[in-house]
Amino acid sequence: MASLFILLAAGLPLRGQTGVGQVSLPIGTPGPDAAVQDLEGNDVGLLDYATDRPTLIEFWASWCEQCEALQPQIDQIQESCGEQVSVVAVAVAVAQSLRRVRRHAEAHGAGYPFLWDAAGDAVRAYEATTTSIVVILDEVGTITYTGVGPDQDLVSAVGAVAPECSP
User: Fold this and answer.
1) Helix 65-81 and helix 154-161, axial crossing angle in degrees, nearest 10
2) pTM here?
3) I want to staple 36 with a disulfide (CB 3.0 to 4.6 A). Which of 8, 18, 115, 159 is the partner?
4) Per residue in 108-137, pLDDT tens?
């Protein structure tokens, strides 16, 4: 139900959300920038966190069970590849508050930034019609991977764009 709300709130079309490369923007297109906030409420650009190295962006919510299922892989990537790959969690502003996101980020101690998409700019820019969508950009900002749901193999997807990294 929350996923449907994201679709409707963002004004995005309903479409199939299964498999790799079938969600978000097409592979091979440039990753767009979007206005978001850091957890202190400062305005920042999403691509400020994707500079000169591959970047994994997860569209995330504290209530998302699929996001929770992806967390061990994302933690592994951050721990093993944090120097070679940027990891960014974009918290959607549906059924959660900035305060709740802050508490989650502090409790989790992820070691990577959580950004707050209060106005839905990142959701619209990336056509992220639900949570647990992951987009991977290469070092020049081109989309190399999109996927959704808990069964994604993010370790392999990161390895394909950052072969020097071995999560």
Assistant:
1) 40
2) 0.86
3) 115
4) 888 999 999 999 999 999 999 999 999 999
Q: How far apart are CA 73 and CA 76, in angstroms?
A: 5
Structure tokens at 81: 């590849």
CA-closest candidate to residue 1, choices 56, 88, 61 = 61
Q: Tokens 């390895």 correspond to what residue?
A: 159
Tokens of 158: 């990161």
Domain coordinates of the chain in residue numbers?
23-159
Strands 55-60 and 133-137: antiparallel
pLDDT in tens, 8-59: 344 443 333 334 445 889 999 999 999 999 999 999 999 999 988 999 999 9
**Residue 78's CB: how many other CB atoms inside 10 A?**
17
Residue environment code for 118-153, b if the CB has 16+ CB neighbours within 10 A, otherwise e? bebbbbbbbbbbbbbbbbbbbbebebbbbbbbeebe
The second-level CATH assignment, the architecture, of 23-159 is 3-Layer(aba) Sandwich (3.40)
What is the DSSP track for 100-125? HHHHHHHHHT-SS-EEEETTSHHHHH
